[in-house]
Amino acid sequence: MRLLILGGSQFLGRAIAAHACANGHDVTCAARGLGGPIAAGSRLVRIDRDVPEGLAPLAGETFDAVVDVSRYPGQVRRAVAALKQPGVHWTFVSTISVYADNRIPGQCADTAPLREPVAEDVEHSTDAIYGGAKVACEQAVGDDAFICRAGLIAGPEDPTGRFAYWPTRLARGGEVLAPGSPDDPVQFIDVRDLAQWIVHAAETRMTGIYDGIGPVHTRGELLSACASALGASCTFTWVDRAFLEAHDVRRWAGPRSLPLWLPLPDFAGFMTRDTSPAREAGLTSRPIGVTARDTLDWLRAGNGPVVGLTVNEETELLTAWRAAKTS
């Protein structure tokens, strides 16, 4: 199979290229080439998707399948116009941020309501319109493609540092500040499992809309499995939403955050997507501990990014929590 990846120079795109090359496919990565090296065995074609003729270096080439990971509607519309030909299998990597309702647990891709798409004249995306921009991208691609709505993607080479916070923190051991309750749901997918499934979809010419995420775990299961895999001795102090928000602890990612934490019930549906259709269509998930261990190994080898509470911030918060409980 001749596979074109629009992107391919970082994280998911590079993982897709690596898996496709390992399966013996002829892989071309089309990108500016600024995100990092492409996977061994693949070919780089330099393009600039932000300009009208930016895909010109691909003119005259033919492909059996295309994978697009863009978040920008203008880029997607130009790619569809230039490259989406009869007989070419098309994969678009979208996001569960397209959904309008984050409160109801157990929603499924084929029935959950979507956000309104951004206007047709919107070329780019920002964090504020990310979900609506991806809806517009999906609409540009059409319903004859494989649309994979990814959830939180974890694992080696993650540029966001979100999941990486937890293996890094747990490896230090000791008392760990954990947000919410051990029963809170958490859902993510290892980048390598998602990449394998996307290549499988291209190989089998699968179409349809799916949520590409792993099974739901509790936060307690996640942290315990990570600690066990890392051989770390940890105790968990569970701190409620009111305290965290009162002490300016931020949700999900970024400085002074507890990554993967989203307050309930506001986001009860965000981490409980019904992914049984995806698993029935071939998506598999490796054990939590494997992802944690491999992520930590990658971080230690290459000094990858980690976001979240600093050591001092966590210590101060735990001290304040104990004082609040005894006052």
Helix and strand composition category: alpha/beta
Distance between the termini: 66 Å
In the CATH scheme, the class of the largest domain would be Alpha Beta
Q: How many helix segments?
A: 10
What does this structure look like?
- The protein is an alpha/beta fold and 327 residues long.
- The chain has two domains: 2-155 and 188-212, Rossmann fold; 165-186 and 217-272 and 286-326, no CATH class.
- It has helices at 11-22, 73-83, 130-141, 165-172, 191-204, 219-230, 241-246, 276-280, 288-302, 311-326, and strands at residues 2-6, 26-31, 43-46, 65-68, 89-95, 146-150, 153-154, 174-179, 185-186, 189-190, 208-212, 217-218, 234-239, 250-252, 257-259.
- A seven-stranded parallel β-sheet has the order 3-2-1-4-5-6-11, with helices on both faces. The protein has a two-stranded parallel sheet with strand order 7-10.
- It starts with a strand and ends with a helix.
- The model has no long low-confidence stretch (mean pLDDT 95).
